[in-house]
Protein: PIPK domain-containing protein
Organism: Megalops atlanticus
Amino acid sequence: MNQNEIEMQEFRRRSHRLRLWGGLRQQWKLLGLFEIDQQHQFYSLTCVMKEGLSAAVQNTIDNPPPDELSEEDFKLEVTQIHKGFRMQTFAGPVFASLRRSLGLSEKDYQSSLSCDGCYLQFITNSKSKADFFLTNDKRFFFLKTQSEREVKFLLSNLRIYIEHFEQYPHSLLVKFLGVHRIKVPHRRKKYFIVMQSVFYPDERIDTRYDIKGCEVSRWTDPAPQGSQVIVVLKDINFEGQYITLAQQRSWLVRQVEIDTAFLERLNVLDYSLLLAHQPLHLDERSQSLSFATLIMRTTKSWSFSTSRRMTGRSVNTDTRSSLAGVPSVPAADPEEGAALLVPDTVNDYGTERRRATGSPGTPESPDPGLWQFRAQNRRLLPCFRNPLHVIDGPEQRYFVGIIDILTVYGFKKRLEHLWKSLRHPGRTFSTVSPPAYSRRLCQWVEAHTK
């Protein structure tokens, strides 16, 4: 059998799988979470991704990132040659450092990305044409195919993205964990970005929302009663409801303001606030925090601050002064925070060792400016597998994160804004300028929290 006959047979097999998958998608109404098994059109692609990702992470295990990253680390491109494809990894040491700051070991990351179980595909009612994949344990959201333009935009802004997390360790922005490209001979190259799941673990999540702060095309028909299909609802579905956080409300409102201001500076729009909730168990509602638990939670909530090692820079006076007037968060009073510090810990930004009994302004403790810096982003995080995207209210546990942050307000989006202005006069729609988009999402959060 010659090469042409082999390729023709492969083409027929792929066509058959596509027809099969198309029928299934029609049957399942294009919504839900499905295993990418051998009959799935993306099975071959995900097998290649799984093999390539495992090797890429192994390279990081064998060559750990330095404590202080250089400019070359941000520009590094590593190509690994496999049987039948090439895998390229961008800025590997930078993303490895970010994973480390999240408390994610490379072995755990590798195990999740290359587990025996098939990847999953999440088919939503989103207008995006990207392919949404999840690891089998649903821990990493999404192995999502990206355009080259989006990838280049992320890499060109990677340093300031990392710096944002250094300043605000509990930022709600989605955590990008790796950027890769796969090239199979005679096929188009595929870019994809690995991200941390906002909705993890999802065992008891009962409702999910994608919020943009507008009204046009922002309604989704809920799943039928008793259906196992996962439907992501939208803004209008949420009307009449509130995110009830009590003391945590001020922190959430302020953090959304900070994160959207950052995205405004990047000139991006069309991002979404992902929101889900699950009821707290009775013992979770009534549990009182012991002193030991407070120490553990506070220490964990600061673990992200070790990302100082990513860029090797400390917080300067200008940064501290720019935080003046920022409201404190629950349990973030400087003196209270001092009492909760683990004795003899090293300050994350290079100051001298301090004692748990130190007070602001003394040689044994950070100066008042640094206390204020810490207070802005210090919460008592739940003892949970995904604490950075979790906020506990009095009765509900909320999963919150800002995703899809790579759409630039360029010429095409400006034309789209003009067209929608003519088509939907007097109504709010997604495509507006970054300042307007940021302001509107902040107003939505302000109006829908209590």
Remarks:
- Residues 81 and 258 are 42 Å apart (CA to CA).
- The two ends are 69 Å apart (CA to CA).
